[in-house]
Amino acid sequence: MTDPLRIDIISDVVCPWCAVGYNQLRVALERTGVEADIHWHPYQLNPDMGPEGQERLGYLAEKYGISADDAAKTQQRITDLGKEVGFTFNFAAGQRTYNTLAAHQLIHWARDFGKAHDLKLALLKAYFTDGKNIDDTDILVDIASDQGLDADEARAVLAENRFASDVGEHISFWRQQGISGVPAIILNSKYLLNGAAGVDQFRRALNAAEAERALA
Question: Which of 45, 47, 175, 196 could make an S-S bridge to 21, C-beta 3.0–4.6 Å?
Fold first, then answer.
């Protein structure tokens, strides 16, 4: 039996295109029947963001040099793309973007228990669908606990910043590989797809990667 196709996803928890891109990939996997072994890797879009966060539309307008109206139109486009692949965005007035170092540390820790994938998806839902502050310790601990992880240990991981250095090293590694935006999705450690490429493009890439593996 062929091993599952390795897929590496470099992503940030507050990146809406990462939520869209992953779900496009998920639908493509379902349509092709390709079995995947997914590995999530950290990236921070806002590494200097303070603990209070920043109002999201204002942040987007400032970062990309666009108007608040244009930022809102982009969010509507993202919302529509999410619906196409079964992911719900609830962009509310005043919603804030947050620093994600703590969230990435929990995902890193969760790998030891085979829970990184489930935790990543839960964090995306918590932020984009439920509007939660994913830099709040109590919220993060509750999300981890809901995924079957030990709440006390999750709290200790966050209190100690136990994996901050590991997360930083992983981010530095991917930047050194030329990754400057997310999502960056790598099939079979070889084929890179940037952004929310679309279900059809993911489907074609999956089929090509599987065909090449069959010939190896």
Answer: 196
Closest of 131, 133, 125 to residue 98, by C-alpha: 133
The SS3 assignment for 156 reads helix
User: Residue 190 — φ and ψ, nearest 5°?
Assistant: -140, -45
Q: Which residues contact 214 (CB under 8 A, 6 or more apart)?
A: 2
| Token couple for 135 | 């830099």
Query: Could you write out the DSSP letters of every residue in 133-148?
Result: -TT-HHHHHHHHHHTT
What is the Cα–Cα distance from 107 to 192, expressed in whole angstroms? 22
Per residue in 108-146, pLDDT (tens digit) is 999 999 999 999 999 999 999 999 999 999 999 999 999
The model's pTM: 0.95
Residue 72 in tokens: 């809102």
Task: Compute the distance between CA of residue 17 and CA of residue 20 in angstroms, rounded to an integer.
Answer: 5
Is the distance from CB of 15 to CB of 82 less than 8 angstroms? Answer: no
